[in-house]
Amino acid sequence: MNNIKFRKLAIGLSIIIYLIFWPLSELNAENSPKIHFTIDPYLQNASQNSIAICWKGSNEHTALVRYNLIQLSSVIEKKINESNQFHCANITGLHPQNEYRYEVILNESGYNYVGTFKTLADSDSSKIFFNVIGDTRDDLETYKKIADLASSTKPDFVLHLGDLTENEGTLKDWEDFFNAGKSLLSQAPIFPVLGNHDESDKYFDFFNIPNNKTWYSFNSGPVHFAAVDTYFSAYAPGSPQYEWLEKDLLSTKKPWKIVFMHAPPYGSAGTTIEVRDALCPLFEKVGVHLVLSGHDHLYQRSIVNGINYVVSGGGGSALANPIPGAETVALVKKHHFLKIEATEKTIQLSAIDIEGKEIDSFRLNLSSPQTPSISPKYYLCESFIYKFYSPGIDIRILPDSIKLPFFTLFKNFTIKYCSSKN
Ligand SMILES: [Fe+2]
User: Fold this and answer.
1) CA-CA-CA-CA torsion for 161, 165, 167, 168, nearest 10 degrees?
2) Cα(134) to centroid of ligand 1, in Å?
3) CA 259 / ligand 1 centre spacing (Å)
4) Which of 84, 118, 152 represents a domain boundary (last residue)?
5) Ligand 1 centre and the CA of 312: distance in Å?
6) What is the C-alpha separation between 328 and 297, in angstroms, rounded?
7) Do 300 and 384 belong to one domain?
8) Are residues 110 and 139 in the same domain?
9) Which pTM value belongs to this model?
10) Beta pairing class for 256-261 and 290-293
């Protein structure tokens, strides 16, 4: 009798277990072979009339791209027939500064991704708004927070100042880079430059750089942008890149000229004297208004001969020790990104930290672009030991907002200690 009861109980339990796990096993069996995105669609190589939408699938696949002009509600489809894992749909014939909705559908599985993008502006009278981010590299969690925050500001496009991935970038590193930053990169086309950690052929696998060179330029609204390679191509006077850059910056008719590159001519530990000596005289000669660099993992702004040099390497990597130079007017050791709005007459830059707070801002007026709008300030956040100017001289900063008369002998600025809470 006991045996019969035990057998009934065992059979009953078996049926229950089967009923519980059967649907799950069927679901897994159904989903496991399905092709999905391993890199969600991201935007690049944008112009006034074109853009590239790129993605990577988990296996070879075909896809369909749809996009429409919102104002006209006309739907355009582009079929991608090549059967490999990585695809780019190059879309042409678009209108300047128009917003488009797009959708990428993986034919074999039906997986889809929906986003929007905006083409670049053509007219000098157009107002443009873009983000700047640098040195995302290895801390994906921090980078994702910065990217999500930047994404919420809805930029037209984003400049990346180099060191996108860590240690030359394995395929997994690149998948992590695009996926951690997807909220930003799926809505704002990226314009990158090479950093010293980007020495990978995969850079060109994932980016369609204009002219297939590591230096390039483009226009958006009233601004001419020039991307300079400071690591893998010669840039000194007489080099092909220098010759190109000089001609490029002299020939543009745009009201504003912005140069972006990885190595900072004026920064903290990463200051690159060779770049300063080779390129800054050219920037002054041709009238560059703003130079954006990365490499130092912090925010730093210097003004030299009327040009604002901004270091913005706070996109994710471990923060660096701040070291002001004689030209430094703002210095903040925090993860951050930049918001920049440009019109025909003004450029407004704001540096936003990972908590969404503004840590520096300034406005350039075309009629008087050399005038800084704020007093010099240093924020030595989260740092007690601060190495000042020459090696071997350490100064301990107390955990309060203080003014040190010692410093005022050399320069009129205030040193403020920032705890992690403020
Ligand atoms: Fe770097």
Assistant:
1) -80
2) 9
3) 17
4) 118
5) 11
6) 16
7) no
8) no
9) 0.83
10) parallel
